[in-house]
Amino acid sequence: MNNKSNSLLNIFLVIFLSVLVSGCSKKIYEYRIVETVKNKQISDEELKKMNVRQFYNFIKVKENRKGMNAYIPSNSYNLVFKFCKLQNSKLKKYTPVLGSTTVLNLEGNLKAANRIVDYATLHGCYIEKTDEYLELIRINSHTQRFKDRYRDNVINISKYSKIDYLDNINSRKKDDEKKIKEIELSNIKINKLRERTGTHSFIFNTSFINNSDYSNTCIKSCKNYNIENTGYSLLQESLDDKWEFVSKIGNVNTKVNRYCTCEGVNILMRR
């Protein structure tokens, strides 16, 4: 093949590859609209007057499904946070009770653009005075072909997500209240143990049967067992609190959970 033919062939290959790459890029970056859109600006006064639907229409760049969710600028998290705050609410990160149908819908669209969803974090904002709900989904994804990564923000209005959000927040609130109550009751029990007088049997765990996989868990569990049953985590603490050693009853092994068996001594103490 002569030089002229080689040159023509090289030009053809360059043009062909350029078209191929640009065509692939267009498909792959179909949803990377956040890079070309500047952050939308608005005053606090205007923001405060908006309802959820108005804010949704203002911030959206491209709707994914009509009236349900839309892509928004990647640097607009602070604006969403501010909107919620001005509405006397707060944008909170949460995990939906039954998962998010919005994320599942987005995964289908991203896969169509040769994208893989690595993970998605969800944030919710409930406006109590108008019974409105806004959800922000932050998606971290990459393409199988080029392995590049980027983050998209998607804003969503969905009554189903609102139910998930409120259930989750209420569940957390109940868990927190339950934990506080348990701590209060535990402190009352510990104080009663420490206020005792007379002669009593005390079990103090000083070590645990070797379990290297859960050593930190076992150290904590054995110490907690001491506190829950004597009021003190260590023998020395009881001595400092004017308890006196009387006699040793014997050595004991106590299985405190599925991972840990504590080793210690059972002794008589008097005050």
Q: What would you note in describing this structure?
A:
With about 270 residues, the chain is of the alpha+beta class. The chain has two domains: about 30-170, no CATH class; about 195-270, no CATH class. It has eight helices and nine strands. The protein has helices at about 5-30, 45-50, 50-60, 75-85, 100-110, 160-195, 215-230, 235-240, and strands at about 60-65, 70, 90-95, 115-125, 130-145, 150-155, 200-210, 245-255, 260-270. The strands form two sheets. The protein has a six-stranded antiparallel β-sheet with strand order 1-2-6-5-4-3, with helices on both faces. The protein starts with a helix and ends with a strand. Residues about 10-35 have low confidence and may be disordered. This is Lipoprotein. It comes from Poseidonibacter ostreae.
Quickly list its features.
28% strand; 271 residues; three-stranded antiparallel β-sheet; six-stranded antiparallel β-sheet; alpha+beta; 9 strands; single chain
Low-confidence stretches: 8-36
Order of helices and strands: HHHEEHEHEEEHEHHEE
Enumerate the strands of the largest sheet in spatial order, edge to edge or round the barrel. 1-2-6-5-4-3
Number of H/I helices: 8
Tertiary shape: elongated
| Class computed from helices, strands and strand pairing | alpha+beta
How would a textbook summarize the main sheet?
A: 6 strands, antiparallel
Structural Rg: 31 Å
How confident overall, as mean pLDDT?
77
Count of individual domains: 2
Proportion in β-strands: 25-35%
**Span from first to last CA?**
106 Å
Q: Helical residue percent?
A: 40-55%
Number of strands: 9
Organism: Poseidonibacter ostreae
Protein name: Lipoprotein
